[in-house]
Amino acid sequence: MDKKRALITGTTGQDGSYLAELLLNKNYEIHGILRRVAYENFDERFSRIKYILPDIHLHYASLENYASICKVVLDVVPNECYHLAAQSDVAVSFEDEFSTMKINVEGTHNLLSALQMCQKNCKFYFATSSEMFGITKKQKQNENTLFNPQSIYGISKVAGFNITKYYREKHKMFACNGICFNHESPRRGSNFVTRKISDGVARIKLGLQQKISLGNLYSARDWGHAKDYVRAMWLMLQQDIPIDFVIATGETHSVRDFVMEAFKNIGIDKWESYVIINEKYKRPLEVPYLRGDASLAHSLLDWRPTITFKELVKEMVQADLERLNHGQETKVIS
User: Fold this and answer.
1) Does residue 44 register a pLDDT over 50?
2) Residue 273 is among the residues annotated as catalytic for this protein
3) Residue 184 annotated among the catalytic residues of the structure
4) pLDDT in tens, 49-67
5) ∠ CA(40), CA(44), CA(47), 5° rounding?
6) pLDDT-derived band of residue 86, with 50, 70 and 90 as boundaries?
7) Active-site residue, from 66, 82, 125, 153
8) What are the beta bridge partners of residue 124?
9) For residues 4 and 29, is the Cβ–Cβ distance under 8 A?
10) Mean of the pLDDT values across residues 135-156?
11) Which string of b and e fits 159-180 if b means at least 16 CB within 10 Å?
């Protein structure tokens, strides 16, 4: 029996690396789309997938270049396509609106169009975001909650959501959206607040840093583990019909909760003296609270998260302690 072929964008990222590992364990043939610029900083960009590089196939292309995407689709002829690549830093989207829209909207459109023209039977997954909900009166957000994004990133994901829905309805493609709430791991980029906290706490423990500078401690999110979320992505493409799903833990914790839990892992209960509030890290438009309702995923996908909030934070802090203890970084940061 021939292996299923999966095409992944964003292969070197947090979600892409976990998804590639999951699919390899399920005997998939893995193909990833890669920008040539990635080789300019090979060690950093490939750190998440270095152990599986011999087992996957990488193709050079740019999501903003339709011809290059078409070529990859024609070469690979994928059975499943997981579109994870994006400009995903919400803070950056306030500063660079045009690049965020170009990558997240035009890139998604190009990929869907290429699949529709060259491999229409390929099942397509688009990684959307809880940031699409923005400020909402609903205590828990599900698939029927109205979108009210408060950032260009959120707006771009709403556009991608609607493009995916359009291709599903007009071209009868198996195209679905995963409305993923925040999901973290030791592979999270250092520009995200959760990783900034875990890394900062580890540095404080080792005497490499004295303080952590943060923005709004009371912003609350539904945080899960990326390993659980990529499993949901795969399950969505194993269904007979394409359905959009909210993927979330159903629990909300504040940034303050994350900080407190991280410091507990190094034996510090009175953490306040180690944290500095810096206004520059606050967003121009804040989304104060998000909490997902994944009841549909529970019932139709039989999906539930397996890693708790406390386990997630502990894993991240311990991973950063291990990395720093191996002498990869020794510079003292004030």
Assistant:
1) yes
2) no
3) no
4) 999 999 999 999 999 999 9
5) 125
6) confident
7) 153
8) 81, 175
9) yes
10) 95
11) bbbebbbebbeeeebbbbbbbb
Asked about 131 being catalytic, the answer comes back as yes
- DSSP letter at 39 equals G
Residue that is written with structure tokens 């556009």 in the block: 159
Catalytic residue among 131, 184, 261, 315: 131
The secondary structure of residue 105, as a DSSP letter, is I
CA angle 248, 47, 13 (to 5 degrees): 35
Catalytic residue among 17, 68, 93, 129: 129
DSSP 148: -
Q: What percent of the chain has pLDDT over 70?
A: 93
Q: Do strands 123-129 and 224-225 pair parallel, antiparallel, or not at all (unpaired)?
A: unpaired
Q: Which residue has the tokens 């997938």?
A: 49
| Coil vs helix vs strand at 7 | strand
Residue 331 is predicted with a pLDDT of 40
pLDDT of residue 257: 98
Structural domains of the chain ordered from first start: 5-183+223-247 (3.40.50.720)
Q: Annotate 285-332 with DSSP letters as a single string.
A: S---B--B--HHIIIII-----S-HHHHHHHHHHHHHHHHHTTS----
Read off the pLDDT of each residue in 275-281 and give the average, rounded to a whole number. Answer: 89
- What amino acid is encoded at 201 in this protein? V
